[in-house]
Known about the structure:
alpha/beta; seven-stranded parallel sheet
Amino acid sequence: MPQKVDEKILVTGGGGFLGGAIVKRLVKQGASVTSFSRNKHAELTSLNVPQIQGDISDPVAVERAVRGKDLVFHIAAKPGVWGAYCDYYLPNVAGTQNVIAACLKHGVERLIYTSSPSVVFDGSDMQGVDESTPYPRRFHSNYPQTKALAEQAVVQASCSELKTIILRPHLIWGPGDNHLVPRIIAKASQLRQVGDGKNKVDTIYIDNAADAHILAAEKLTANAALSGHIYFISQGEPVLLWEMINAILNAADLPPVQKTVSHRTAWIIGTFFEIVYKLFKISNEPRMTRFVADELATSHWFDISAARRDLGYTPRVSTQEGLERLAAWLKTKDNK
Length: 336
């Protein structure tokens, strides 16, 4: 068992896609794990996992959840590409600060924080870059900006009392996905290939992402010198973005994307939508934004050699096997 005997573990966002996968892995290992999230989740109840309800931006609720724990996986966050800055700041930055403060107050030994490669995305191609890549001078979305602030807080919190590691998984997908795959499927008929289709990206299958988090906690126990380090994690094999999107559509028995639009046109459309939505205070997500246009048309894949070296991370499930599992899950889901 990778975790210490009788160690008490908290997973924030334990009812979510990644958090749930980590909780289930820990339960399988026989670990004592508790979930903290806004709502109660039937799947965790069926696993007899204790669940604490609360808002990550509420310091009292967070402190209550963290008290008595030895290890915290901080997964909870607000994702997305659109919304007011304060709506992202409260959960992503203030929430992370709450977790750090509670960990320090209650003597938590290790904190594993889930960040995102988007914190270094500047709108241009990023091919094989490593963790030395700086944050951009300007962010085009509140999500990566607030995740970058949270990431810095976790790095700065690293000390002899609290050991920390930051992981940057990119485009997590697989069975149980409630974000990426459903978005692609829901917009299947409206999708347009942005750019020339030659841009490569990293992705990570859900089981591999969960593996990386548990490995990080394990290695941090053995080697305190890793504290404060940041790691990109992925499948380790960049794929053409639009081929991957079409593979997901194929897993759902849907036709591939046929129509195209240039990167420049999509960026201009995104700019227009952003202006209109802000002007008229429309809260719904626009069909296109500058950030999304850049994400869909550029390459963004990362060097994971540091995670391989320091964490012993190796993707267990290949992309092809993951797609087969996804297709089987989608069929089962559709038949329910």
